[in-house]
Amino acid sequence: MERPPDLAAAIDAAAEALIGVLDSATAPHTVPVSPTQLRVLSLIMSHPNTNVNRLAELLEVVPSSASRLCDRLEAVGLLRRAADPRDRREVRLIPTGAAETLLRELTERRHQAVQAVLDRMPNRVQHELLLALVAFGQAAALGAVPADADSTAVRTA
Fold first, then answer.
1. Any idea what DSSP says for residue 86?
2. 3-class DSSP state for residue 25?
3. What is the Cα–Cα distance from 99 to 105, expressed in whole angstroms?
4. What is the rounded end-to-end Cα distance, in angstroms, of the chain?
5. DSSP label at residue 3
6. Helices (H) then strands (E): counts for the chain
7. Measured between alpha carbons, how far is 135 from 138 in angstroms, rounded to an integer?
8. What confidence tens digit (pLDDT) does each residue in 112-129 have?
9. What is the pLDDT of residues 2-37, one digit of tens each?
């Protein structure tokens, strides 16, 4: 089967539509933190025992920028710093119960927003979409190389 010439453009448009749906579920009036702060919380949740230096690496920013982000999250009660019991010189970043609740509720709202769109699609098309997304994810994982892999620039948050 030959690939349609505008497949990449169609996928780009669908990705933009998906971003719009997800963004609507995280509207500023429903989430008390910025998108960058949400990303920080998500990274810390998915990388237990993270310290500021590791967070800076994950965000591709300088450690002082990562530390300031953590300061803001700590000030609103979504993050706490704790000494590592194995090495008291290390300070771990720990999401609070409020952060876990926020991320869980946000995930649920996002899933509901996506489900509302899926509900407007025929079941057969939903199934085809699922198969296509799984195949796309597998293909992407095979060639997963950052676009700027040889870039040494460090961003600030």
1. T
2. helix
3. 10
4. 44
5. P
6. 6, 2
7. 5
8. 999 999 999 999 999 999
9. 666 788 898 899 999 999 998 888 876 667 888 899
Look at the pTM and tell me if it is higher than 0.90: no
Measured distance CA(99)–CA(3) in Å, rounded: 44
- For residues 52 and 63, the answer to whether their CB atoms sit within 8 Å is yes
User: Which tops the pLDDT comparison, 152 or 95?
Assistant: 95
Joined together, the tokens standing for residue 79 give 């993050």
Structural tokens at position 14: 């669908």
Q: Which of 104, 37, 33 has its CA nearest to residue 70?
A: 37
**What are 157's two structure tokens?**
């948050």
What distance in Å separates the CA atoms of residue 130 and residue 69, rounded to the nearest whole number? 36
- Residue 92 to residue 105: CA distance in whole angstroms: 24
15, 6 Cβ separation under 8 angstroms: no
In residues, how long is the chain?
A: 157
Task: Note whether 17 and 114 are within 8 A (CB).
Answer: no
